[in-house]
Automatic annotation (TrEMBL):
It comes from marine sediment metagenome. The keyword Signal does not apply. Gene3D superfamilies: 3.30.70.370, 5' to 3' exonuclease, C-terminal subdomain, Ribonuclease H-like superfamily/Ribonuclease H, Taq DNA Polymerase, Chain T, domain 4. It catalyses: DNA(n) + a 2'-deoxyribonucleoside 5'-triphosphate = DNA(n+1) + diphosphate. Keywords: DNA replication, DNA-binding, DNA-directed DNA polymerase, Nucleotidyltransferase, Transferase. SUPFAM superfamilies: DNA/RNA polymerases, Ribonuclease H-like. It is an enzyme of class 2 (transferase). The keyword Nucleotidyltransferase applies. Coiled coil: none annotated. Its EC number is 2.7.7.7. One of its GO terms (biological process) is double-strand break repair. This is DNA-directed DNA polymerase. Belongs to the DNA polymerase type-A family. GO terms for molecular function: 3'-5' exonuclease activity; DNA binding; DNA-directed DNA polymerase activity.
Length: 574
């Protein structure tokens, strides 16, 4: 019985993890009124003695849940599962404990429920799940609906209790921190953690609707490009073996390092443990066929992974339903999976810019082949609107640098934005000098990209060594460029330093929306990035919610489909 509980915790057990692809997958539903007794309703368990509940009972329960606050750990999944069986709870007040825990403890290595519970509640938190999996293996059961309901109930009860515990604890922490913040601000206007939580709470149902609608893919294009990507990746894999003189695991950093060491090649960039790094930036600095082949292989493999993900995850109608994570990054920025759409090149120009990663002796140094560039450009072409619709792309213009200019109150940068100047070109001029007359197109692209790398490198806390690697110059040159930059944009340098100093004293920083991040002394250099990227991310969330609400008010049959980088993709009917 739900009684008069205003808050109810819910948890679905399912026979699949893909509700948008596999339809009716609900095995049973766990329910727990706040501080009350939990119960489990089995709907599709194939074994055991428990009587199965009817779907009509599910709808009766749904009516009893309306008007209450519903708490889940990752609600978008449960909402999709329940809606497939006719119970639509998306418009009820929905709270996500993943988002809540991220707000109050943003440095957790994982926000998976059992791992959190093991750390904070019960060291044996994952034991019931392990025992269930052992039983499933012994009995030959492959999905949870094959487990007798009486055997799964303890497991479900545990998940409900853990979710309830994190809900209560996180809400109390938010209230405590906000009370302290208000006291310290002495009545001055300030954004609170509760404001951030309210923003996230409003966003959750809209993200569910975006996931539910999905985005259409050109099925024949995906199949064609997948075949091309497989062929190219295989060819580049062979090229790596030829350049190395032997076969090795291209995905194993220790083996890659060993091959380079065997050839007497050292990297100018080191890992956090002091070992040679062979990351993308490191490979750009190595003039050897193996480095070029390995960089090309990784680029092609990235393209292959996109198409393989599209092919495996789109439904029979060619619709792709990815999963958005509100709490995906520590800064508050979106992430996505199944597949990850956040790293797709924004347009073909992005791929073309990648060809001028270095510029030595008057020549642009290509790190990607023509075929790879075409592959990157083609990834975005896989997305097509539904019949009778078109895509409307809304992209922020240099949002993070505008936020940086606002935080730093740098008059030079603010005036540049006000006049509509190219900020990357302006930065390149400030750091490296004016663009020479009669410069070639490739040099101009490289020169502008140097400005872009410097702009974002400073925001992301990039040091001299990494900046030097990024732009293909010596540390001395990189330092002179950085010094010239701060001479031009003096207030930016002051902002970076003062933010780190304040974080070192307080142990945390708070962005414009009230989101906090606690940073240990050795990583305070990340504080400015959190403020800039975090504020930009919260701005995107706020505007995304506003767009969705405006479309409903206007009764338009259109819907945002996804975000890529700082771009919002809408599907609009003609």
């Amino acid at each position: 019985s739900l009684g008069d509980a205003n808050v109810v915790v819910l948890d679905c057990e399912t026979k699949s993890l893909r509700p948008h692809q596999h339809g009716k997958i609900l095995a049973g539903l766990g329910v727990k009124p706040l501080n009350g007794e939990s119960f489990y309703l089995p709907f599709r368990h194939k074994n055991g003695t428990f009587k199965q509940a009817s779907l009509s009972q599910l709808l009766i329960l749904g009516e009893a849940l309306r008007g209450r606050t519903l708490v889940y750990h990752n609600p978008k999944f449960d909402l999709a599962v329940l809606k497939n069986d006719g119970l639509d709870l998306v418009n009820e007040e929905t709270l996500d404990t993943v988002v809540l825990v991220r707000l109050v403890s943003e440095e957790e290595p994982s926000y998976e429920l059992k791992r959190l519970a093991k750390k904070y509640i019960d060291e044996s938190a994952g034991e019931r799940e392990r025992e269930l999996k052992k039983l499933m293996k012994k009995m030959g059961w492959e999905t949870y609906d094959q487990i007798p309901a009486e055997m799964i109930q303890d497991y479900v009860d545990g998940d409900l209790e853990y979710t309830e515990w994190f809900f209560i604890r996180s809400m109390a922490t938010i209230k405590r921190r906000d009370a302290a913040n208000l006291k310290n601000r002495a009545g001055k206007e300030t954004r609170l953690l509760a404001d951030v939580f309210d923003l996230e709470k409003k966003l959750t149902p809209w993200l569910f609707k975006m996931e539910e609608r999905g985005i259409r893919l050109n099925k024949s294009h995906v199949k064609q490009e997948l075949a091309k990507a497989k062929k190219l990746t295989k060819e580049l894999e062979s090229a790596c073996y030829v350049a190395a003189g032997c076969e090795f695991n291209l995905h194993s950093p220790p083996q890659v390092r060993k091959i380079f060491e065997r050839k007497g090649i050292r990297s100018k960039i080191k890992t956090k443990k002091g070992k040679d790094s062979y990351s993308a930036d490191a490979l750009k600095l190595i003039k050897h066929p193996l480095a070029a082949a390995l960089a090309s292989f990784r680029g092609a493999k990235n393209i292959l992974d996109y198409y393989a993900g599209f092919d495996g995850l789109m439904d029979s109608e060619g619709i792709l339903h990815c999963s958005f994570h509100q709490a995906g990054a520590r800064t508050g920025r979106f992430s996505s999976r199944d597949p990850n759409l956040q790293n797709i090149p924004v347009e073909e120009l992005d791929a073309n810019e990648m060809i001028t990663d270095r510029y030595d002796d008057g020549h642009a140094i290509a790190t990607l082949t023509k075929e790879e560039l075409e592959g990157y450009g083609a990834v975005r072409a896989a997305f097509i609107p539904r019949p009778g619709c078109f895509f409307l792309m809304s992209d922020w213009s240099q949002v993070e640098l505008r936020v940086l200019a606002d935080y730093a109150n740098d008059s030079t940068m603010i005036e540049a934005f006000r006049l509509g100047l190219d900020i990357h070109a302006l930065t390149a001029t400030a750091a490296y000098g004016p663009l020479p007359l009669n410069s070639t197109e490739s040099f101009t692209k490289w020169w502008r990209k140097m400005g872009k790398d410097l702009n974002f490198g400073l925001v992301y806390g990039m040091g001299i060594s990494l900046l030097a690697a990024k732009i293909g110059k010596s540390k001395k040159e990189a330092k002179s460029f950085m010094d010239a930059y701060f001479t031009r944009f003096g207030s930016v340098g002051q902002f970076l330093n003062s933010t780190q100093d304040a974080c070192l004293v307080k142990g945390w920083v708070k962005n414009k929306w009230g989101r906090r991040r606690y940073l240990s002394p050795e990583i305070v250099y990340r504080a400015p990035n959190f403020l800039v990227q975090g504020s930009s991310a919260d701005l995107m969330k706020e505007r995304l919610t506003a767009v969705c609400e405006a479309l409903v008010v206007a009764v338009l049959k259109s819907m945002p489909l996804l975000t890529i980088h700082d771009e919002l993709v809408n599907e609009i009917p003609y």
